[in-house]
Amino acid sequence: MDDLWQILNGIPWWVYLLFIILVRLGLRSIKPRTITLQRLSLLPLVFILWSLLKLYQNHGFAFPSLIVWWILCLGMGAYLGVKEVSSWKLHVDKEKKTITIPGNYSTLVLILAIFILNFFWGYFYATSRIPIPHWIRLADTISTTTCTGFFVGRGGLFLKRYLSHRG
Hints:
The chain has six helices and three strands; from the N terminus they run ααβααββαα. The chain is mainly alpha-helical. It has one domain. A hairpin with a 4-residue loop joins strand 2 and strand 3 (98-101).
């Protein structure tokens, strides 16, 4: 229990703030919600940039194969994200530039998964006393990028439906 308390005490304040913001966003997604076109475009972009920054910060250019894995996992996650939401009924309002999506728990789960994975891997890298083997870096890239891709795929399908809507 002391180890857990030490971990929690060592977490920067902004991580707690980020966690609260993400949980709040995820909880709001349980109910049907209307999203502006800007937000619909911005969130997947933020997750992609966060993922790329993390890839660079944790691995630099020391492992070029991770870039290939990042691209593959982003694509695989995007495909899975599209499959999950392809049957959802959406309401598009081109005048207000909004889209209304049904409530679900998957957004909350996805946001928490991305946060927990990034927290876990960040803690692992910060506290590791040994050189980190390539397979650990690969597991990090696969797990976090697939989740990010899932989010990106969902947002991409929503954007596609918005843009292709007539009326």
